């Protein structure tokens, strides 16, 4: 019997902060970065593709709190994906960084519409922090063992702006079946091709880790 196809949704975005977060939406260069590294990296990922049986859907997300609150639930409803991976660029990063968790409170920066939630939080009454169900430490070890010429590290703070806001919103919507990857600006030190290959390897390993975890859960239920 043929296995059902699975969906992986990748959204590309970022945040403009004076400390160096950059912006990713598709309306041109923005902030201190003349090139949108995360969008270009994801375009490289699209060229490479993922394993057979996995459909890859790519979206750009505006740097707007209210749009994020509408769009993220709509994407989960539309695709019912196995995994959603959000990708942003950080001007402070020198490695490809796997974010472990999203945070609910502390959002004070204005978005591209000069808007900020009055509550300064993603979900009123939601938990302060939500962890991804993906074992990011395991993904980091697996990808590092592949011998790619890209360093991969772990973070527990996605920045308390639109990147973190998007991640928390997605984690809340999906009960943790989301991930966020920060990439450095192009050429600092990696090329678009290097970042694209790194994203491909990271997402493949995320799927492997998720499948292994689900197999263990199913096995426990059977017994």
UniProtKB/TrEMBL annotation:
- Subunit annotation: Monomer.
In its UniProt record, a GO molecular function of this protein is: pyroglutamyl-peptidase activity
Q: What UniProt keywords are attached to this protein's entry?
A: Cytoplasm, Hydrolase, Protease, Signal, Thiol protease
Identify the GO cellular component terms for this protein.
Answer: cytosol
Q: InterPro entries annotated for this entry?
A: Peptidase_C15, Peptidase_C15-like, Peptidase_C15-like_sf, PGPEP1_Cys_AS, PGPEP1_Glu_AS
From the Swiss-Prot or TrEMBL record, give the protein name: Pyroglutamyl-peptidase I
Where along the chain is the active site annotated?
99, 163
- Source organism superkingdom: Eukaryota
| Function statement | Removes 5-oxoproline from various penultimate amino acid residues except L-proline.
**Which EC number(s) does UniProt give?**
3.4.19.3
Catalyses which reaction(s): Release of an N-terminal pyroglutamyl group from a polypeptide, the second amino acid generally not being Pro
**Pfam families reported for this sequence:** Peptidase_C15
State the family named in the UniProt similarity comment for this chain: Belongs to the peptidase C15 family.
Q: Provide the GO biological process annotations.
A: proteolysis
Q: What is its main location?
A: cytoplasm
Top EC class per UniProt? hydrolase
Annotated signal sequence range? 1-22
Q: CDD domains in the record, alphabetically?
A: Peptidase_C15
Q: Where in the cell is it found?
A: Cytoplasm
């Amino acid at each position: 019997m043929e296995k059902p196809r699975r969906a992986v949704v990748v959204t590309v975005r970022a945040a403009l902060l004076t400390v160096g977060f950059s912006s990713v939406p598709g309306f041109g260069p923005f902030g201190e970065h003349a090139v949108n590294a995360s969008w270009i990296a994801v375009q490289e990922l699209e060229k490479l593709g993922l394993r057979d049986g996995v459909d890859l859907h790519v979206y750009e997300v505006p740097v707007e709190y209210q749009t994020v609150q509408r769009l993220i639930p709509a994407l989960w409803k539309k695709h019912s994906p196995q995994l959603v991976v959000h990708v942003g660029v950080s001007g402070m990063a020198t490695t490809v960084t796997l974010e472990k968790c999203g945070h609910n409170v502390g959002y004070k920066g204005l978005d591209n519409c000069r808007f900020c939630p009055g509550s300064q939080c993603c979900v009123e009454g939601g938990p302060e922090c939500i962890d991804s169900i993906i074992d990011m430490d395991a993904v980091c070890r697996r990808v590092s063992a592949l011998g790619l010429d890209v360093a991969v590290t772990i973070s527990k703070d996605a920045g308390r702006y639109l990147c973190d806001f998007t991640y928390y919103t997605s984690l809340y919507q999906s009960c943790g079946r989301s991930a966020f990857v920060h990439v450095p600006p192009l050429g600092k030190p990696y090329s678009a091709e290097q970042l694209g290959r790194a994203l491909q390897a990271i997402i493949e390993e995320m799927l492997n880790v998720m499948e292994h975890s689900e197999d263990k859960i199913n096995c426990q239920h059977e017994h």
